């Protein structure tokens, strides 16, 4: 776990709820996208992206999501979702999620989201600010 936390300095703890399991007695596949969203919003808060959204009306939208399920997760468990960044472009970047199960002591799920910057006033794509690029590069992994 210590190596995981070193690799993902921005991470989010999520307690698995009983109601997130499906008829096959493991966390339903769609729930992971909510876990990713929770980790994504936590990441955005920590790099002040949501504060900038309030000021500039420019913020992130998701154009693509992906998940790969390596091991089933069941209740009870606590997950740690680590976030990293790659493929930083003028108007977009890729977020990667790695889900670590405390019960299983291993990674159970990985996923990603393509994040595009969007101007909510004009309805058009927007470019990443130099400050945002610097913040993202802090968490960039090859």
Can you describe what's shown?
- With 142 residues, this protein is an alpha+beta fold.
- Helices cover 27% and strands 37% of the residues.
- It has four helices and six strands.
- It has helices at residues 2-7, 31-46, 49-56, 130-138; strands at residues 11-15, 58-69, 78-86, 92-101, 106-119, 124-125.
- Strands 1, 2, 3, 4, 5 and 6 form a six-stranded antiparallel β-sheet that branches.
- Strand 5 (106-119) and strand 6 form a beta hairpin.
- The longest helix is centred in the first third of the chain and has 16 residues, at 31-46.
- It is globular.
- The two termini are 21 Å apart.
Largest sheet: 6 strands, antiparallel
Q: Please give the radius of gyration in angstroms.
A: 16 Å
Binned, the helix content reads 25-40%
> How would you classify the quaternary structure?
single chain
Mean pLDDT: 96
Regions with pLDDT < 50 over 5+ consecutive residues? none
Structural class: alpha+beta
Distance between the termini: 21 Å
Number-wise, the strands total 6
Question: Can you give me a brief rundown of this structure?
Answer:
With 142 residues, this protein is of the alpha+beta class.
Key phrases:
27% helix; 6-stranded antiparallel sheet; single chain; globular; 142 residues; 6 strands; alpha+beta; 4 helices
Summarize the helices and strands and which ones pair or pack.
Layout: H1 2-7, E1 11-15, H2 31-46, H3 49-56, E2 58-69, E3 78-86, E4 92-101, E5 106-119, E6 124-125, H4 130-138
Antiparallel strand pairs: 1-3, 2-5, 3-4, 4-5, 5-6
């Amino acid at each position: 776990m210590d190596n995981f936390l070193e690799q993902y300095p921005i991470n989010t703890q999520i307690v698995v709820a009983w109601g997130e399991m499906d008829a096959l007695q493991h966390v339903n596949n769609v729930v992971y996208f909510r876990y990713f969203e929770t980790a994504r919003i936590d990441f955005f808060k920590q790099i002040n992206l949501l504060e900038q959204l309030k000021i500039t009306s420019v913020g992130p939208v998701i154009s693509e999501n992906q998940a790969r399920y390596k091991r089933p997760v069941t209740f009870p468990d606590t997950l740690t979702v680590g976030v990293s960044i790659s493929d930083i472009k003028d108007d977009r970047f890729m977020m990667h999620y790695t889900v670590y199960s405390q019960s299983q002591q291993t990674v159970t799920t990985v996923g990603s989201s393509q994040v595009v910057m969007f101007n909510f006033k004009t309805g058009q794509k927007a470019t990443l600010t130099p400050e945002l690029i610097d913040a993202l590069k802090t968490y960039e992994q090859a």
